[in-house]
Each structure stands twice: as structure tokens, then as C-alpha cells.
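The instructor's notes for this session suggest beginning with a concrete chain rather than abstract definitions. Hand out the sequence below and ask the class to guess, before any prediction is shown, which regions might be ordered.
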Amino acid sequence: MNRLIKLSIIVLLSGWVHLLFADEEGQWQRMKRGMLPDNPMPVDMLTPVDSKRWYVCRAHYNKAMHPGKLSQQSRACLITVSGRTNRAPHYEVLLKQADYIWQAYQTGPIPENAVIGGAEDADEAYLLYICRVQRKKAWVAGKILKPGTGCQIERNGRAYTMRKFEILVKKAKD
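After discussion, reveal the predicted structure:
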């Protein structure tokens, strides 16, 4: 099935485009300024639960929705746009689901069961997928712009594209 068909509705709210995804694409909860829901999706399950743990988030920027990373310490969803980091104090947090897994990915088509994190533009021409990269001993969340381009992550205010990464997918039902 075409990924664009899976998007449910686009609603114009206060000049922002808000993407509402079907349940199989993930459940998101609106939050602000470092707040977290009860069951946020962690980027790294091994990191101790504290203010330094990163979670999957997404935020609006220029009528588009970009996936990124969030910690209570950051107090904003950190997203990359045009090679730069943007801090979004209002954001959505992906809710943890038992059937989410991180899967190794390098090249080829995006898996059918990949979790969509947003879209690069209002007409949904480029869907963005959630990925993560291991940097030293920590995992960093990012986004896949197009198949084969790598995982774009934020580090110290800049965007970096990494070729070895994992993509967030829903386990296939047996």
C-alpha cells in the first residue's frame, strides 16, 4: 500500500500543518517544555531512567513535521532542518508500544512496517522515518529523509548524516 495513502488527514491549525497518522503508524501525545507522558518511546532501552535518557519526539517547523529527540533536560524537541538544529518547546512524544523494535538498516527500500515520524513538506512528498545511531555508548534519534540517504541526527547544534543505523519498525503480526 502506498505510504501516502496511510496518512489519515491533514488539518490546518493556526497556520501549522498537523499530520494525524493511522494507529499502525504510531500514537503521539502533545507535550511542551520538557514534559513527558507516562510511557514515552525511549531511544535506548539500556540507558538508566533519568534526565539524560532520550525519547522519540516530533515537532512542527515551517508547515512540516520533523522527528527528533527529547530529554527532560533539553526541555524541547531537538529537530534538524536544513543542516541546523531547531529547539521546539511544543512537540509530540511517541508512545511506547510493545510491538516496536529497532531494526538494522543501511540501503534499499524503507521497510513497509517502518514507523512514520512526519513529512518534509505540507504536500507529504517526502515522508520522514524514525532512526537511531549509536555514538560512543549512547543512542541518538534522528530521521531518514529518503531511502539510501542515511540517518540524519543532531549533535551539538548541527546535523550529521550517518550511514550505519537502525530504523524503528512495528513487528509483523504472526
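Then share the key points. The longest helix spans residues 3-6. Residues 14 and 147 are 32 Å apart (CA to CA).
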